[in-house]
Specification:
Elements lengths: L6 H11 L6 H7 L4 H9 L6 H11 L6 H19 L7 H21 L16 H13 L3 H10 L6 H14 L4 H17 L4 H21 L3 H17 L10 H14 L3 H14 L5 H14 L3 H11 L9 H17 L3 H4 L3 H11 L2 H17 L3 H17 L5 H17 L3 H10 L11 H15 L5 H14 L7 H4 L3
Helix pairs in contact: 1-4, 1-5, 5-6, 7-9, 8-10, 9-10, 9-11, 10-11, 11-12, 11-13, 13-14, 13-15, 14-15, 15-16, 16-17, 17-19, 17-20, 19-20, 20-21, 20-22, 21-22, 22-23, 22-25, 23-24, 24-25
Length: 495
């Protein structure tokens, strides 16, 4: 590093570079300076010419006449820091504190002088048209990293809008299936935007409550159920307290849906069912398929497979496969799976290719494996034994080989294979299959009741006493226990 570098000028240049949200290429273009030269000046590896500093000031709208006072203020900071670090040059504590305060005030005055006079912030009346502006603002946020996004919404007033908070909340929902961590980050950003919204206090509380619901949903997605529950309680309080100030712009359907999914995860099924019915009643038309899928899942957790199947049948025409391919896959997959559970594989068979096409379009490995499993169920239910056995074996290997292994899926497909073998009276092979399932009992992650049910089957298979009825009961129990971890196996025996 050259001794001739004017570090006070360099630091003013650094401040001008980072005082806006231009990237280095944008700053280079605005100051008519080669990007490679900008890097050298910023790092202090080349002397910064006065005209380059003036160009940067012009680009930022900072008066040239204030460059010299800015350098003096920075020089004060540097001198103070140098004195603090050398014991033989430490200034008196009070004088040092005064110097820092004066230097800070000087910089604040200098940079305030270089900016246009701030106009009093007059909050606009919220309108549906605000969403058009929010869409453009999101494009600016989308390409930034999380820290940059947060800085932008905290420092730039145009981002501090109920509509931007609403849109960022929607993006959190959108990315949740593929990126739970990003969903949580976006929900937190939406909350911060809501907190900064100007205007009526009640409307701000309503917006904060709406954002808190999305924080609660994101915490559920990352498997933080206690945190999700706490966020939900905060959301409900703010949402309800802000109700008198709500002009009806925020869609209550999402609020009901999020609470329904969280209550479902908490095994509070009567509340979950009540909220999903409220969501369906409040729906403005574009969430019907998603809401019906959630209702079907709640009914499945309650053991009402027949009711769940009919709700899924109703949901299929309400899901736009082009716009919501993942929801479409979830609805169609569960519909065919339910039909197989009800011994109606013949009805499911003509629709398998539709599910395969959706899974192939999404391109996720585990989606494809589960569709292979579904194909095995349909083959078994329509008498194609060899095809079913091959599909089950392929799915078993895949579920066991991922890291971490998908233990519940492995157990379910193994039990379906056992059911197939029992139907052919191949008891020795069922016993071998039970031995191959032994690793499940030393693996972490499964609920004790689910493990207990699997153990009952494996022990019976080892004695040659496993039956088709026992296999069916354990399969149905495992299906339900995914949604109700507290369910006891004895409670499922009536199915």
């Amino acid at each position: 590093m050259s001794d001739k570098v004017d570090h006070d000028a360099r630091l003013v240049y650094v401040l001008l570079r980072y005082s806006d949200y231009l990237d280095q290429a944008g700053f280079s273009s605005a100051t008519r300076t080669a990007a490679s030269q900008v890097s050298l000046y910023l790092r202090g590896e080349r002397t910064l010419p006065e005209d380059i500093l003036e160009r940067a000031a012009d680009a930022r709208g900072f008066p040239r006449v204030l460059l010299r006072p800015a350098k003096r203020a920075i020089r004060s900071f540097r001198a103070a820091a140098k004195g603090w670090s050398r014991a033989d040059r430490i200034l008196a504590e009070t004088f040092f504190a005064d110097l820092l305060a004066l230097s800070g005030e000087a910089l604040e005055v200098i940079f305030a002088a270089g900016a246009p006079a701030a106009e009093p912030r007059v909050p606009a009346v919220p309108r549906a048209e605000d969403r058009d502006a929010a869409a453009g603002l999101w494009l600016k946020l989308e390409r930034r990293n999380p820290r940059q996004r947060l800085a932008m919404v905290e420092e730039i007033e145009e981002f501090q809008s109920w509509a931007v908070s609403e849109l960022v909340s929607a993006k959190s929902i959108e990315v949740a299936p593929s990126s739970p961590a990003q969903a949580l980050e976006l929900a937190g950003l939406a909350l911060r935007i809501a907190e900064l919204c100007a205007g009526d206090k009640l409307l701000r509380q309503r917006a904060e409550g709406y954002a808190w619901f999305h924080v609660a949903n994101a915490r559920r997605v990352v498997n933080d159920l206690p945190g999700s529950g706490a966020a939900l309680e905060t959301a409900i309080k703010l949402w309800e307290s802000g109700a008198p100030g709500d002009p009806g712009l925020l869609d209550e359907t999402w609020v009901f849906w999020i609470e329904a999914t969280i209550r479902d995860a908490q095994s509070r099924f009567p509340e979950a069912r009540k909220r999903i019915e409220q969501a369906l009643a409040a729906d403005r038309g574009n969430l019907r398929g998603k809401l019906l899928l959630t209702k079907a899942q709640i009914l499945g957790a309650l053991g009402d497979i027949e009711g769940s199947t009919e709700v899924l049948r109703e949901a299929i025409p309400h899901v736009d496969e082009e716009r919501e391919p993942r929801t479409a896959l979830g609805v169609r997959y569960q519909f065919l799976r339910n039909l197989c559970l009800q011994d109606r594989a013949v009805e499911a068979a003509p629709h398998l290719r539709e599910v395969e096409a959706l899974a192939e379009r999404l391109g996720q490995k585990m989606d494809l494996v589960r569709v292979t499993f579904l194909g095995g169920l349909i083959a078994a239910g329509t008498g194609r034994v060899e095809e079913a056995e091959e599909a089950f074996e392929k799915a078993r290997r895949s579920f066991a080989s991922v890291e971490p292994p998908l233990v519940l899926d492995y157990a379910l497909v193994s039990l379906e294979l056992a059911l197939l073998l029992l139907g052919q009276n191949r008891l020795p092979q069922v016993s071998t299959l039970a031995d191959q399932m032994a690793w499940i009992f030393t693996h972490q992650g499964m609920q004790p009741e689910a493990l207990a049910a699997i153990r009952i089957f494996c022990e019976a298979a080892g004695r040659g006493a496993a039956t088709v009825e026992l296999a069916r009961r354990v399969i149905r129990f495992l299906d339900r226990s995914q949604h109700d971890p507290g369910l006891k196996f004895e409670e499922a025996e009536v199915l």
